TrEMBL record:
GO terms for biological process: inositol catabolic process. Its EC number is 1.1.1.18. Homotetramer. It comes from Tranquillimonas rosea. The gene is iolG. Residues 142-324 form the Gfo/Idh/MocA-like oxidoreductase C-terminal domain. This is Inositol 2-dehydrogenase. Belongs to the Gfo/Idh/MocA family. The lineage of its organism: Bacteria, Pseudomonadati, Pseudomonadota, Alphaproteobacteria, Rhodobacterales. Keywords: NAD, Oxidoreductase.
């Protein structure tokens, strides 16, 4: 069976996901497109999905008989209504991060999915499908003993002018929030953000770098540097310190070159290539599960907890205080 997918939002990641569905994945094809800017949908149709129909609205795409499942790849603030629409239509939906831009919005999705009684929503936290992170998690479970601390960093070469201080949390650190929860099988109880000396390469509206300090319910302490104008590349680091040993996230595979008295190795510069295989794997997993009517991977609950945790981090940015994080009870659907 070929699963027929509709893509809402045909910007950078909607285009990249459509390309991978059409050219890399098996058992799935893109049959429908919608973007708020029709020219964006037309451009993607011409480049990667000539047979796909361009719909007048996202709601029409969700309702279309030929669409088995939906990918929401539009701007973050638009995710909630499309995801709720897909749940109402009983169609599986893959939603790029963030699930919603407010914790209340994410809760509405959790409530709607719980009422539907089955997992219809997968959130695009692709690192859970990354080979390196899976190797790190397996090592933690087999060799490290009880985890005590994590030292991590998330560095982007540069960010655009519209990227402002809270985006370091909502747009960037949100990946780390989900990754730490998943690695540790634990939730956060508090967050603090501190600001080192600012780099001269950051524009006025972004404080850069930042350090986020988290504490989990089991007492694990996490420090994570977010440095989004580091200049030299896209660099994701994670070191877990356990009672019996220490483990590091593997570096992406790269050829080391010896030349003119230098030993060198390239560093990737963008997230698309850094997590290429993880993006392929998360969408293949989604497509494979559509026929069963139940999806897997990061859930709406994970998206909701990420939203609550990131709101606390933004409050911590604004106040300089250590901010408590309290989670509501988890609905049975997510046990
Ligand atoms: N998982 C990841 O690592 C990752 C990486 C990049 C982006 N993202 C997420 O993907 C989403 C899109 O990011 P992007 O970089 O592709 O942005 P983008 O700006 O390139 O594309 C967004 C698209 O959404 C369209 N759009 C805006 N409002 C819409 C609406 N109401 N209905 C339908 N379409 C609408 C825009 O016209 C644009 O084509 C964001 O939520 C972002 O956080 C995730
Ligand atoms: O949307 C992108 C993406 O999520 C990247 O993985 C992250 O490194 C960037 O900071 C963010 O802007």
């Amino acid at each position: 069976m070929t699963v027929k997918l509709g893509v809402i939002g045909t910007g950078m990641i909607g285009t990249d996901h459509t390309r991978r569905i059409q050219e890399v994945l098996t058992g799935a094809e893109v049959v429908a497109l919608y973007d708020y800017l029709p020219e964006n949908a037309a451009k993607l149709q011409a480049a990667h999905a000539p047979g796909a129909k361009i719909h007048e609205t996202g709601e029409a795409l969700i309702a279309a008989d030929e669409v088995d499942a939906v990918l929401v790849c539009s701007t973050g603030s638009t995710h909630e209504s499309y995801v709720l629409g897909a749940i109402e239509a009983g169609k599986p939906v893959f939603c790029e991060k963030p699930l919603a831009t407010t914790a209340e919005g994410a809760k509405r999705i959790v409530d709607a999915e719980s009422a539907a009684g089955r997992r219809l929503v997968q959130v695009g936290f692709m690192r859970r499908f990354d080979q390196g992170y899976n190797m790190l998690k397996a090592t933690m479970e087999s060799d490290l003993g009880t985890p005590l601390m994590i030292h991590a960093c998330h560095r982007n070469a540069a960010v655009p002018e519209h990227y402002v201080t809270p985006m370091a949390i909502h747009d960037t650190f949100i990946h780390e929030i989900d990754t730490f929860r998943w690695l540790l099988d634990d939730d956060f109880v508090s967050a603090q953000v501190i600001f080192p000396r600012k780099t001269r390469h950051a524009h006025d509206k972004v404080a850069d770098p930042q350090i986020v300090l988290l504490e989990t319910s089991k007492g694990v302490r996490i420090d994570c540097e977010i440095f989004v104008n580091c200049r030299y590349g896209y660099d994701i680091q994670c070191q877990v310190v356990g009672e019996e040993g220490v483990a590091d996230l593997p570096e992406p595979m790269a050829v080391a070159t010896r030349r003119e008295a230098r030993l060198s190795q390239p560093i990737l510069t963008d997230w698309k290539s850094r997590f290429m295989a993880a993006f392929d794997a998360e969408l293949q997993d989604f497509a494979d599960r559509v026929p069963s009517g139940h999806v897997g991977g990061p859930s709406a609950w994970d998206g909701y907890v990420a939203a609550i945790s990131s709101d606390a981090c933004v409050t911590a940015q604004e106040t300089g205080a250590i901010v408590d994080i309290a989670l509501p009870d988890r609905p049975a659907l997510y046990d």
